[in-house]
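quick q for whoever's on today - can somebody do inverse folding on this one?? i tried earlier but teh output was garbage lol. tokens:
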């Protein structure tokens, strides 16, 4: 028996010791086998993924542990984004760890959170703590995994950040228990003749070529000859993979050489939060929006200031000015050193280069740019563009809305910062607080909505998107629908679905017996719920419930009913 106990304790020690040998002495935040569902710097629609995602066997309530000694420096709660999230500062390493989409916190942290929410009568909150408030030890259970906030399924989102600078750091630098022996794979090459300076097979249009990758070597799927002249940019669609994971991950390292000379290098193992939106310049923005393809452009806009390009010759642009073969090679490498290559030839062949039409309104990327007519104003702050643009604008009449349609440049051109737009209304409305701006498609259907300020017949608002805008009105209050009301045999919770057709839910508050109670929100399912608590509201009696829900322009709905519990 003693020998068996000794063997068990020794095995525990060996497991712990092997895990703790990760960089900076970190252990894994979860005790089960580590399999990733998301990687660091993975390409997302408008940002780089800031951490890694751990699979939780498609369930919630897996214990989550602190990776090192430290203290809880911040608690976050939201129905969107990170959902329930903890930030733990580790003074000995100068870093901070983050654990997101949690189902719940440990009892101490939960008590602090609930006390703040009730004191301030809020659900969504950020609570900043002092080092002595909630110290934690390495391996201590701090929370349980979940699916809260913007999560697309049960998992743990995990980050490491530099405490002083705020930079995100790739956790795989410290290995964190992840096993990876799988090489990246390439699926598509795209060649971009530069406007007015390059030609591809006699055309100014970019062209895509399918690739097939096997055993770390990519090749054209079909026999291909590329002929070009002048200035050319290249882009690659590729993904990384890890052991036992069937999902795709982001590529960490891209190296591009031409005739054995390196002209472009991308290495992303740390970046600042302010740099994340530069992904809109790094990827082929139009290709992503039109076809959902993430093509990484291996040439850099002059307005892209992200610090992930250690090698950059002529912004990564290849100049074809000799009638010969140019030998091009891609090498893609993951965090564990697994790599794949793709070698091909571009044939230099003299051909005409098409010149663009005259630009009427040129907007340099580095300037503050303003466009105004009697019906619209557009103010674009400095460094909001990634490259110079030839600005386009078109107005068309609308009889059904409160302004004309205003096509403000192209929706396929990205913006880094918010711009200011002012649109003149074409007819009065009794309550101007109900006006809002809508980014609409060709059929006039809302794609995004914006609240703003109305003064002197001008509605002004901020946006990060070019496109087709119109002013509309919202007089429809939110809808409150009971999901689980007075049926508590199996589920002792008050659950409601709250929706708003136009401007979206802005606030919700619940009261039982005229006392504010905490309704928790899951925005992705449009649900709020109150977990019945006998200490708070009492048992075996009739209770009076009141819900007040408002949308972004102040339309209000009230639900009142009684229940016995």
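ok took a stab at it. sequence:
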């Amino acid at each position: 028996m003693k020998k068996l106990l000794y063997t068990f304790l020794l095995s525990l020690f060996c497991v712990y010791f092997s895990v703790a040998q990760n960089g900076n002495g970190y252990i894994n935040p979860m005790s089960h086998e580590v399999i990733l569902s998301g990687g660091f710097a993975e390409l997302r629609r408008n940002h780089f993924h800031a951490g890694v995602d751990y699979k939780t066997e498609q369930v919630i309530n897996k214990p989550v542990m602190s990776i090192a000694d430290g203290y809880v420096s911040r608690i976050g709660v939201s129905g969107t984004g990170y959902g329930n999230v903890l930030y733990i500062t580790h003074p000995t390493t100068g870093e901070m760890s983050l654990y997101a989409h949690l189902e719940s916190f440990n009892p101490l942290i939960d008590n602090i959170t609930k006390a703040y929410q009730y004191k301030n009568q809020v659900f969504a909150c950020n609570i900043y703590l002092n080092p002595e408030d909630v110290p934690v030890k390495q391996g201590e259970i701090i929370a349980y995994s979940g699916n809260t906030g913007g999560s697309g399924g049960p998992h743990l989102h995990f980050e490491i950040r530099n405490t002083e600078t705020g930079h995100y750091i790739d956790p795989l630098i410290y290995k964190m228990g992840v096993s990876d022996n799988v090489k990246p794979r390439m699926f598509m090459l795209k060649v971009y003749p530069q406007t007015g300076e390059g030609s591809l097979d006699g055309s100014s249009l970019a062209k895509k070529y399918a690739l097939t990758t096997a055993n770390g070597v990519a090749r054209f799927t079909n026999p291909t000859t590329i002929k070009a002249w002048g200035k050319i940019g290249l882009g690659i669609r590729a993904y990384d993979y890890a052991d036992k994971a069937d999902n795709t991950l982001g590529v960490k390292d891209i190296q591009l050489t031409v005739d054995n000379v390196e002209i472009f290098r991308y290495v992303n193992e740390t970046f600042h939060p302010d740099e994340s939106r530069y992904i809109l310049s790094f990827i082929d923005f139009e290709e992503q929006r039109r076809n959902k393809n993430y093509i990484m452009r291996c040439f850099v806009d002059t307005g892209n200031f992200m610090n992930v390009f250690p090698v950059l010759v002529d912004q990564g642009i290849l100049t074809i000015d000799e009638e010969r073969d140019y030998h091009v090679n891609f090498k893609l490498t993951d965090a564990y050193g697994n790599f794949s290559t793709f070698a091909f030839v571009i044939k230099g062949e003299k051909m005409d280069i098409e010149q663009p039409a005259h630009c009427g309104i040129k907007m340099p990327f580095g300037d503050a740019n303003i466009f105004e007519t009697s019906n619209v104003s557009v103010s674009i702050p400095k460094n909001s563009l990634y490259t110079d643009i030839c600005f386009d604008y078109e107005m068309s009449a609308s009889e059904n809305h409160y302004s004309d349609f205003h096509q403000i440049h192209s929706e396929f051109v990205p913006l880094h910062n918010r711009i200011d737009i002012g649109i003149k209304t074409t007819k009065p409305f009794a309550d101007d607080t109900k006006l809002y701006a809508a980014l609409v498609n060709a059929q006039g259907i809302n794609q995004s909505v914006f609240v703003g300020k109305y003064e002197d017949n001008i509605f002004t608002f901020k946006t990060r998107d070019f496109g087709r805008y119109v002013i509309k009105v919202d007089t429809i209050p939110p809808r409150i629908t009971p999901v689980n009301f007075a049926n508590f045999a199996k589920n002792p919770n008050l659950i409601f679905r709250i929706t708003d057709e136009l401007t979206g839910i802005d606030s919700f508050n619940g009261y039982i017996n005229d006392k504010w109670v905490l309704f928790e929100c899951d925005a992705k399912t449009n649900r709020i719920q109150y977990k019945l608590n006998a200490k708070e509201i009492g048992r075996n009696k009739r209770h009076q419930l009141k819900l007040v829900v408002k949308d972004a322009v102040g339309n209000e709905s009230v639900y009142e009913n009684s229940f016995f519990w």
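fwiw Confidence is low (pLDDT under 50) at residues 1-21. also The first strand starts at residue 36 and ends at 38. so keep that in mind when u check it
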